[in-house]
Each structure stands twice: as structure tokens, then as C-alpha cells.
């Protein structure tokens, strides 16, 4: 049995968290807030998120990010804690899974998106994870598991270090037994929370405008397909076990909501057409073999029903572009745009394919008229800036930087935006501003020590303006506590190297 790096990362971060926090187990009946404060939850969640980014497990795509964030916050608006901060993201994995982490971080695997058949099924999973966060199930689990899980994990790490000169089979056996024991403890505990997350999540789903029965239908279909294929359950069903009782109660809850609570006409109407495009975009951008994906899409198109073809053609167009089959990609995406001339996703996707094909002028001309119509669209502005940067002209770099600057104030935490902004400033000749943006990229992609060094070097440059210097000094002061905490928790380099996690 093989274990992926994300499993090891989660384990190591958990161990670091456990050893770095001077927390005493509370007396029975105490609040979970005594174990982890909301501020601590946010810090640990961000550390996990940035580490996932550093290792390439987050699909950082502006179009997908805009979609999953918008959908997620629609659900949060109808939750019990709409003021809670959340970060929704897509994980580069074909496994059917989703999870919530401390601080409101909710990850959805590309594989889960792909097997979902409707937007309400995806929303059902996300609503369930939102409920886990708002009910603080994660903190309660941490409180209960501290005594039992840490000894298992410590013994497991000790055994891993001891096997540095033995075969890989021995390492795999240790991982299998250790992680298996920890996962079983987690499942046994979280089953008590699953029904509560189901109940609250279904209510969130319904109040947002989705079919409340979608949760039960999706879980039941996954379980049925797993049994029919004779395979083991996907990760989501292992951590969210589906029983007849659970499905039945979910159906009853959905029926009760429909009967007792009237539907509000102004609620969000599910957009299955857009969802189908997004799940194919996630499939393509999370793939390491675009050429194989091209062949898969071509085969699937031959076997498809008419209602499925447009989304499959969109996926094929993206796969062709990633496989460097640029002429075919541009041609196919143009055909889609001809059918829907005002479709923003098609417009941006075609422009991106044109930039990849070396047709940056056509891409910029295509996107420029849309800027006034969609002034707040981050995917559009980033795509337009990328087309300008591809010209390699100084004046176009300045225009790209000016286009992105308003977004930096609103979405400075977005590494894709910061990287594009850095490249624009490099082209424009503003090296100081480019270096500052590169430092932000380093911070948000799990390289905080690099970020700090870059910011300090920036202060040594005599060309830095008074205002930029003040901004950089404030940023250094802001991230210094985070750096110091990481230093205290940093895993020994030898252990990192043994586990394949060396920086």
C-alpha cells in the first residue's frame, strides 16, 4: 500500500503543531477554544495550505479559484457562522476526496469534482465540510486525540528514522500500520460528528438554493459504484463512512426542509453548464500527462451523448494547449466561442491558448474590450496582463502592472496574481517592485524563509522609495512571529530528507 506525500505532510504538520503548542489538556466539559484559539487555528491551517502549495498539490488557476471561492462563499453566507473566514481550493489529485483543515481551509480534490455529475453534488460536499468548520469539529477532534494519537505518530517517526538503511518495504509497512491506526481513531471519533455535519450541511445546501437531497444521492451513488466495481472505498467514504441509516436520515432531513421551509425565489440557481466546464478544467490542469488526456478526450467524445459534448470539447481544447498542440487548441476553442460569443470562460481560455501559441497580440485585443464590462474579474485581468507581458515590450509591461495594481490591494494573497505582477514590473523596469512581489510569492507558496531574506535584501537597495520601504518594513514585522514559530517547529533536516520532504 502506497501513501502519498500529502498524508506524510499532514502527519508531520500535526506532530509539529502538537510539540510547538504549550497546551494542557482541559478538564472534562471545557470548551474546545481552550485547546486552540481561532488565531492558532488560522496559523496552522495556513501552514498546511502553504506547504501543500510548495509541493505543488494546489491547483492555482485564476478561473478555477474564482469558481470554487464564489461557490464556497455562497454556502458560507447561509451557514451558522457567515462571518467565519474560509479558503476554498482545489487539490491536484485524482482521488475522490475533500477535507476541512483548521482556520476554515477547505480542499476539494480534482478527482471528486470530476465524478460529481451536478453542481449541487459538489456543493453538498463543500457544505458538509463548511459545517465541520463552523461546528469546530476539527478542534474537538484534536482535543480528544492528543493523548492517543501523538504516541502512535512519534513511534512511527522513530521507526522511520531507524529504517534509513533498510528496504523500502519496511518503510511502507511502518507507514501502513501507523497511519492506519491513526486513521481508524479519527474515523471512530468523527462518526459522532458526521450526522451533525450532514444535518447542518444539508440545511446550508437548501438555503443556498441547491437540492437538499443531493448529499444523500451523491454519497449513495459513490457507495453503489464502489461495490459494483469491486474496489475499496475512495478516501472520502473512508473518512465519511456511508451507512443505510445515514443516507436515510439525510433523505428525511431533505424532505423535511422542503416541506417546512419555503423556497426563496432570489436564491442562487445551480449552474450545471458552468460546473461541467470547471470540472474538466480541473481535470486537465491537475494532470501530469496532457498528451494522454488528449487521447482520452478524443475517445470520450466519440462515445458521448449530445448534452456532454460541449464540456468534453472544452476539456479537449485545454488538453491540446497543455500538450503544445497549439493550432488544434486555438481552432477548437474558437469554435466553442463562435457558438457563445459572450462566454467569458471561453474568451479567457481562448486568449490563454493564443498566448501559448505565440499569438499574444490577438489575445490582448480579444480581452481588452472586456475590461470595462468585468472590472472586478481577476481571471480576466491576469489573462490580459499575461498577454501584454508576452510582447516583451517595456510599455506593455507598464500597462500590465497598472492593470493588476488595483487587484494587489484586494487579492494580495494570490500567488498567481503576485507572480504575474512581478513579471510585469520586471518588464517595465521596476525591479524594486518586482522583488517585493516575488517575496510575496515565496511566502504564499510555502517558502517563508526565502520571503524574509528577499524582503531584507530589498531594504538594502538605495533605490527603494520611502513609501515602499515603509511597506516592506511593516511586512517584515508582520511575518517575523510566523518565521520564529516555524523555526521552533522545524523538522530536523535528516528526517525531512528521509521522508522525501527536504526543502
From TrEMBL:
Its cofactor is Zn(2+). Zn(2+) binds at residues 128, 132, 194. Residues 1-20 form the signal peptide. InterPro entries: Mito/Outer_Membr_Metalloprot, Peptidase_M48, Protease_BepA, TPR-like_helical_dom_sf. It holds the Pfam family Peptidase_M48. One of its GO terms (cellular component) is periplasmic space. Gene3D superfamilies: Metalloproteases ('zincins'), catalytic domain, Tetratricopeptide repeat domain. Its EC number is 3.4.-.-. Functions as both a chaperone and a metalloprotease. Maintains the integrity of the outer membrane by promoting either the assembly or the elimination of outer membrane proteins, depending on their folding state. This is Putative beta-barrel assembly-enhancing protease. The lineage of its organism: Bacteria, Pseudomonadati, Pseudomonadota, Gammaproteobacteria, Lysobacterales.
